[in-house]
Write a structure and sequence with these properties.
Layout: H1 5-14, H2 21-29, H3 37-53, H4 56-76, H5 80-99, H6 103-122, H7 128-135, H8 141-152, H9 156-169, H10 174-183, H11 187-199, H12 202-212, H13 218-225, H14 236-243, H15 248-261, H16 264-273, H17 279-292, H18 297-304, H19 311-324, H20 330-337, H21 351-362, H22 369-373, H23 382-393
């Protein structure tokens, strides 16, 4: 049968009758475990060579009819060398199916490989590393390109199938997914790639974190920062680097990441940076605290609100205190609006700062707010005058 098999298989494929190959496969793989070792090797060699020699256009059809008997043989196989041969064939068949867009069967084949590997690993079986080597085999460039194109297509069905296949392939897709995050502008695609990386565990998270401190472009760094919290939330070191980056877009992405993380370490970092001598870094931290409204932030910001030539910094302090709305912020904001005493050496607050303080004071639930705003109804600054009058009207 083995001698005549290639010609008969090719004939059935050319006739468009691949189903006729199934009885032949059934006979060859029946009681496969109990066959003579030499015969088993010949059977596998024959089908392996057939997979390689069949014209590309028919490989999908052949793979489909081979899948079931080969999976059954793989599930029962005990011999280490034969197990490796079968696993390699299953993996190759899965790659073929991806090329022919049969993602469902491809995922099933890959799932069986991973399932068998997990069981062997849990049992500390010496055959586990053999399967691991096959599962870690680098994807062929053509298969990679097809998966990437489907994921970037914008077509929900194609994206879903590509996501399923990439998820089934496991760690071997890590470089592909990281490149997608770095190179693709569309957020949804990067978010899918990040979710798939998260499924791959700590190693994937560590690799993506390392990318952030490598010599990559600012655009690539921003793209990673926008999705990395979907992979891991242990990002204090990476956040410090991002917030200290000279590129304003990277820094902005870093502050957005801080707001999404919103944990104790992030809040402590923002509280520290709120008093940083570099204005841009301080303002970003102040704005972040205003949005997050963590306990103790108002007290820290109020202590830093002092007369300064840095109008933007002072405005940011006032705005953040207003957003937080802590009654304890009444006094420092009221001081900004207090009239300057005769011969006082206190620097004059700018109109921008005073206007920001009035808006902030309106958001503070304190009974004396009306006492501060009432006299400002006749303030020389039209912005302050308008805000004070509208507050009086309720």
């Amino acid at each position: 049968m083995l001698e005549t098999m290639p010609g008969r298989v090719n004939e059935f494929l050319l006739q468009g009758r691949p189903k006729l190959i199934e009885p032949m496969l059934g006979r060859l793989f029946k009681d496969f475990q109990g066959r003579d070792p030499l015969l088993r090797e010949k059977v596998l060699a024959a089908w392996r060579n057939l997979l390689k020699s069949v014209p590309s256009g028919f490989q999908g059809d052949l793979t489909k009819v081979m899948a079931e008997p080969l999976l059954l043989a793989f599930a029962d196989e005990r011999d280490p060398r034969m197990l490796e041969e079968l696993a390699a064939m299953v993996y190759r068949m899965a790659a073929n199916l991806i090329q022919f867009s049969d993602y469902q069967l491809a995922c099933r084949l890959l799932s069986q490989l991973h399932s068998r590997h997990r069981k062997l690993e849990e049992a500390k079986d010496s055959r586990a590393p053999t399967l691991a080597r096959i599962l870690e085999k680098k994807l062929e460039p053509a298969v990679q390109k097809l998966l990437v194109e489907d994921l970037k297509s914008g077509d929900p069905t194609r994206q879903q199938h590509a996501t399923q296949a990439l998820g089934s392939l496991g760690l071997t897709t890590m470089p592909v997914l990281i490149d997608l995050i770095k190179q693709v502008e569309e957020f949804r695609v990067r978010q899918i790639a990040a979710s798939l990386l998260a499924d791959q565990g700590p190693m994937a998270a560590k690799t993506l974190k390392r990318e952030l401190v490598l010599e990559i472009s600012a655009t690539e760094r921003v793209r990673i920062l926008e999705v990395i919290d979907s992979v891991t939330r242990s990002l204090k070191t990476e956040l410090v680097f991002a917030l200290g980056d000279k590129n304003p877009q990277v820094r902005k992405a870093g502050f957005r990441l801080a707001e999404r993380l919103n944990d104790k370490e992030v809040v402590e970092l923002l509280l520290e940076y709120a008093g940083h001598p570099e204005t841009g870094l301080a303002i970003g931290a102040i704005k972040g605290l205003g949005k997050l409204k963590p306990p103790g932030a108002a007290e820290r910001l109020a202590s830093l609100l002092k007369p300064t030539n840095e109008t933007d910094r002072a405005v940011a302090f006032c705005q953040a205190l207003g957003q937080i709305g802590d009654p304890g912020s009444f006094a420092p904001l009221a001081r900004v609006l207090a009239p300057k005493r005769f011969l006082s050496r206190r620097p004059e607050w700018t109109g921008e700062v005073r206007a920001a303080a009035v808006l902030a004071l309106r958001q503070i639930p304190h009974p004396r707010v009306v006492d501060v705003l009432a006299p400002l109804a006749d303030d020389p600054d039209p912005r302050i005058r308008q805000i004070a009058r509208s507050y009086a009207k309720g």
